[in-house]
Amino acid sequence: MAKFGKGYLNIGLPWILNLILAIFPVTSWILGGITRILRGHWIVGLLQLLLIGEVILWIVDIVTVALSGDLRFFA
């Protein structure tokens, strides 16, 4: 399995910048979907990009970024 950077787009952004990006719904949906696809979770990434379950995944993104500094749920 490949090693990934932390946070959105797997580029190792600082924790606070990932948290700021996670707070805004549009950036969280787009960057979260792209990150999930890059990490090999195609179905969840596409569902997020198509805005299905957007509120649930947005809240999960905020919580996981705040607690661990990385997307942990399906990413």
Low-confidence stretches: none
- The total count of strands amounts to 0
Give the ordered list of helices and strands: HHHH
SS field, number of helical segments: 4
Q: Helical residue percent? A: 55-70%
Whole-Å distance between the termini? 13 Å
Structural category is mainly alpha
Identify the overall geometry.
globular
Largest sheet: none
- For the CA atoms, what is the radius of gyration? 11 Å
Mean pLDDT: 82
Q: SSE layout and pairings?
A:
Elements: H1 15-23, H2 25-38, H3 42-49, H4 54-68
Helix pairs in contact: 1-4, 2-3, 2-4
Protein model, in words:
The chain has about 80 residues and is an all-alpha fold. Helices cover about 60% and strands about 0% of the residues. The protein has 4 helices and no strands. The protein has helices spanning about 15-25, 25-40, 40-50, 55-70. Helix 1 runs antiparallel to helix 4. The protein is globular and about 25 Å long. It starts with 14 loop residues before the first helix and ends in a 7-residue tail after the last helix. The model has no long low-confidence stretch (mean pLDDT about 80).
